[in-house]
Write a sequence for this structure.
């Protein structure tokens, strides 16, 4: 019995010691992201920059999931920050539509207000690049479509493959197909990191490719552009729980120092280093920050 009492006291002291030693999970800023290359890199850019500029503790939970998982995780406080795209926040989360002629700044303002009112989270300043959609296909596929409208006239003879989430989003396949009268003969679902290989290997004819993805060039894919401006602007920005900004008063100012610091070309180059050269996302993030003179 004495041994049991001694063991219990020891455990209590150990737990108390952990709580007083700064190991409390509530004292750590938790950053996460989606399950594709760019979203594996961006959390580390935020994390490394915060740690270089403050004394805050930060942890990165890589690839937690898509917007349908990250948004409730943010609401519950399971995560504190992730990078979202303005058009996704507007249509997939707030279930609102971009208005004709609405500028990127106007969309960001609307998204920020909606998140603050509904989710107790806010959007900080955009990082500088936009990642929108094009519809990519093999150069040798005989498709030859410069616009989505061109592609629609050929879609009945083609198959379409997209990420699982693309079929579920408000700004995804169904509304896109309706806007352009796409009638693809077959639809397939892929992991977003596999769909580029799928179109390259002729498993599918057309994919919704990201404009910051270097595999468009590396796999020599051609692509059609959104000539009706179906998709809203998709500028990337950190989304942060408001409670965390209150808890860490330097955080907002520090993250906003990254505003406009990542161009589309720089993001595509970082993606290429991971996807094509096999480099580690965290090291790519650190190298970018150092080369840009943002950290030492």
């Amino acid at each position: 019995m004495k041994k049991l009492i001694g063991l219990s006291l020891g455990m209590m002291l150990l737990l108390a010691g952990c709580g007083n030693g700064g190991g409390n999970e509530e004292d750590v800023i938790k950053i996460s992201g989606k399950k594709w290359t760019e979203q594996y890199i961006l959390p580390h850019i935020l994390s490394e920059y915060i740690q270089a500029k403050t004394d805050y503790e930060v942890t990165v939970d890589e690839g937690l999931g898509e917007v349908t998982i990250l948004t409730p995780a943010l609401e519950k406080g399971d995560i504190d920050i992730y990078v979202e795209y303005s058009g996704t926040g507007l249509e997939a989360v707030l279930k609102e539509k971009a208005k004709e002629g609405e500028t990127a700044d106007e969309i960001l303002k609307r998204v920020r207000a909606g998140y603050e009112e509904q989710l107790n989270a806010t959007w900080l300043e955009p990082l500088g690049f936009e990642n929108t959609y094009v519809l990519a296909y093999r150069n040798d596929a005989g498709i030859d479509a410069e616009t989505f409208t061109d592609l629609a006239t050929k879609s009945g003879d083609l198959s379409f493959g997209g990420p699982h989430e693309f079929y579920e989003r408000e700004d995804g396949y169904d509304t896109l197909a309706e806007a352009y009268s796409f009638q693809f003969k077959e639809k397939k679902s892929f992991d977003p990191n596999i769909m580029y290989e799928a179109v390259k290997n002729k498993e599918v004819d057309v994919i919704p490719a990201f404009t910051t993805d270097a595999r468009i060039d590396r796999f020599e894919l051609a692509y059609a552009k959104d000539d009706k401006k179906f998709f809203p602007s998709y500028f990337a920005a950190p989304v942060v729980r408001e409670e965390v900004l209150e808890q860490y008063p330097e955080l907002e100012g520090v993250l906003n120092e990254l505003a406009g610091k990542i161009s589309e070309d720089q993001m595509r180059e970082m993606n290429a280093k991971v996807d094509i050269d096999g480099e580690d996302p965290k090291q790519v993030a650190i190298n970018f920050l150092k080369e840009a003179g943002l950290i030492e």
Notes: The first helix runs from residue 2 to 20.
